[in-house]
């Protein structure tokens, strides 16, 4: 399962186009999940589920990403992997947000944010804070949200361009709202 995952994320894009490459990637990730399940390797399964979520921008497999987020949350909790649990909680929160479950989304985002702070998981902290900024103060939770400048530092530290762009977009929105 791990070899297939590695080969999938390190393979050059298919020359037939982005859609074909996305489908190819999604098929390989589904195979990785099946192999990890059949081998009983829960850590490899958790990695494959995470790759399925994080490659959504390549595969456009929304159904697979949402299912993987929920399954990964349960598996990370069972394995006691707090950092992975924080990441999966934030991805579940995102799924809840797009499926019209605002109360559940806020609850999941708060949990991911707080857990992320405790265990040093920047992806959960950054996405959690950005999601909670849009909530009324009473929904943001008891732990103060980190400022955008700190979130940018955390995002840059992870070297994840998409995460950095999310923070920069929030900074632009704030600047426009402040009429800067």
Describe it.
With 180 residues, this protein is an all-alpha fold. 78% of the residues lie in helices and 0% in strands. The chain contains ten helices and no strands. α6 runs antiparallel to α7 and α9 packs antiparallel against α10. It starts with a helix and ends with a helix.
Question: What's the SSE blueprint?
Answer:
Elements: H1 2-9, H2 18-39, H3 42-54, H4 56-59, H5 62-79, H6 82-98, H7 102-119, H8 122-133, H9 148-158, H10 161-177
Brief summary of the model shown:
Helix content is 78%, strand content 0%. The protein has 180 residues and is mainly α. The radius of gyration is 17 Å and the shape is globular.
Low-confidence stretches: none
Strand content bin: under 5%
Coarse structural class: mainly alpha
The whole-number mean of residue pLDDT values reads: 90
Rg: 17 Å
Question: What's the β-strand tally?
Answer: 0
Query: What share of the residues lie within helices?
Result: over 70%
SS field, number of helical segments: 10
| Shape summary | globular
Topology pattern, helix = H, strand = E: HHHHHHHHHH
Instruction: Characterize the largest beta sheet: strand count, sense, and whether it forms a barrel.
Output: none
First-last Cα distance = 50 Å
Brief descriptors of the model:
single chain, 180 residues, mainly alpha, 10 helices, 0% strand
